[in-house]
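User: Is it possible to get a 3D structure for a protein together with its bound compound? The compound here is phosphoric acid mono(formamide)ester. I've pasted both below.
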Amino acid sequence: MQKDLLTIEELCENDLNEIISLASKMKLKRDEWKPRPLEGKSVGMIFSKSSTRTRVSFEVGIRELGGNSIFMDMSDLQLNRGETFADTARVLSRYLHAAVIRTSKHDYVVEFAKAANIPVINALTDSFHPCQILADLFTIYEYSERLDGVRLAYLGDCSNNIANSLILGAKLSGLKLTLSSPEEFSPDFNLIRNPDMGRGDIRWVKNPSEAVQGADYIYTDVWVSMGFEKETKRRIELLDGYRINRDIVNEASPGVKIMHCLPAHRGEEITDDVLDDSRRSIVLDQAENRLHVQKAVLSIMFGEVGEATKKNNKKKG
Ligand code: CP
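Assistant: Yes, that's possible. Here is the predicted structure of the complex:
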């Protein structure tokens, strides 16, 4: 694995396999898991946006790996008074052993990571949310026992950080991804078409019914992402036909599962009955798996478990 995790693009297929395999073991043996690669280490959590899942799953995970997390609201830091991300990164690298950052512009995290000599993890920017998509891939793997060829339909805002990261995740894993939105919220076609970014069978269609035909999973996210609140009325009007409701679910495969990264705006992008359908909705598994994949990522970044896994594999084979 590379030093930082800023987008899924930084991972190779082997990294993904190792993260899923380790997350699976750590989930199964959560209470008796012994390796504590963060013992004596401090991880800074620098956030400028609200969070429930990301903040709590990282803080709990860091503690379970023996480390200490330090939460910093970005508005309390000198960043708020003009200190650059690069200068902040150089200073914090003298105190911390890793940094987890949630902010608006992706360039801020890139600037921080370039200047930092500690690992940096993107905990959401306006452009990418790699930790969420790793948890989603792990969740799909748990249900389907594979990723390659699994059919996922994503409905709603196809220009947001989840859609961007799903595109990269599909390229890495071989998911068959169909995105569906009105033209105003179409995906970043450069991400889809860039041939340097692996495989993946990715298409965009305007018609949501066409998108869900044969889908094994249907995924959505809020229509108004954090920071876009001024566009609320326009977004709700334009995306109205892309709501995940009982009718659209009935058009997919009989065993289709429903995904949402949460938080949900009930009644807007997804109806209550679909979100709460215990036979189909796997949204709480996605949320739980944030903990396990992030612990796996941190463990691999900090060597001990990743190296141990490699050594074990060598011995076996
Ligand atoms: N899915 C997600 O990132 O949740 P939070 O915004 O609550 O962290």
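The chain has a mean pLDDT of 95. The CA atoms of residues 272 and 279 lie 14 Å apart.
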